[in-house]
Specification:
The structure is a single chain. Helices cover 28% and strands 23% of the residues. It contains eight helices and ten strands. It has helices at residues 5-11, 35-38, 43-55, 76-79, 102-120, 122-126, 169-172, 209-212, and strands at 24-26, 59-61, 128-131, 138-144, 149-155, 161-164, 175-180, 186-187, 192-195, 199-207. Helix 3 (43-55) packs parallel to helix 5 (102-120). The chain is globular and about 60 Å long.
């Protein structure tokens, strides 16, 4: 329920580093509350945070169990509890689709899509990041290389928003549409984009034929 502008503030201090792309970034670890616990076990907010972690600059680190939304609190034994599965006497095996709950599979699939995309994304591997000061608790940034341009939108409001995008013409100009990498859905009108509350979009921009020439 906080101000997403705090993410912008942190990234805006990247000039302090020789190369901020070398920074390791994480949402939790063995010495702090798990991220799913921090966001009140809200799956939508959890997935928004993971989208940011896996699409911003830097080298992401995922703590084991994040992929199934383990929710340990400030008790260190719970933060470090065993992952369910992998041993003969475990009552379930969360390494398999059948061994995970519907919620766990939802989070697992979200992370898996982003990680698979990261492996081949020229924009993340060789591009640079530009971002805008958040407005209406909406954070928008662009990862761009010579071969690829990605726009990430994170709506940190419970309510849906209709986004008028002229503010972001700096990196939308020359593109006719986009593909949402999380859903596969095509977006044909970049001038107005509808977003659900507490959601994120990862858009691969499609160059216009004129721009391509």
């Amino acid at each position: 329920d906080g101000d997403i502008g705090k993410l912008y503030d942190i990234i805006s201090e990247d000039f302090l580093y020789a190369n901020a792309d070398n920074n390791k970034i994480f949402g939790d670890n063995h010495d702090m509350d798990r991220l799913f616990y921090i966001v009140g076990q809200d799956v939508n907010k959890f997935k928004m945070a993971l989208t940011f972690l896996l699409t911003t600059r830097g080298i992401p680190q995922l703590y084991y169990g994040t992929e199934i939304a383990m929710k340990g609190n400030d008790k260190h034994g719970i933060i470090r509890e065993d992952f369910p599965g992998g041993w003969a006497n475990d009552t379930r095996n969360a390494f398999t689709t059948a061994g995970r709950t519907a919620q766990e599979n939802d989070v697992f699939n979200h992370i898996q899509k982003l990680l698979k995309w990261r492996k081949s994304s020229d924009a993340l591997q060789h591009g640079s990041l530009k971002h805008f000061v958040p407005a209406n608790n909406l954070y928008v940034y662009n990862q761009k290389s010579d071969k690829e341009s990605i726009v990430v939108m994170i709506n940190n409001n419970a309510e849906s928003q209709k986004i008028e995008t002229s503010r972001y013409d700096e990196f939308l100009k020359g593109y006719d549409g986009a593909t949402d990498l999380l859903t596969g859905q095509k977006i044909n009108n970049l001038r107005e984009i509808d977003m659900e509350g507490n959601s994120s979009l990862v858009l691969e921009l499609i160059p216009s034929p004129k721009a391509a020439r």
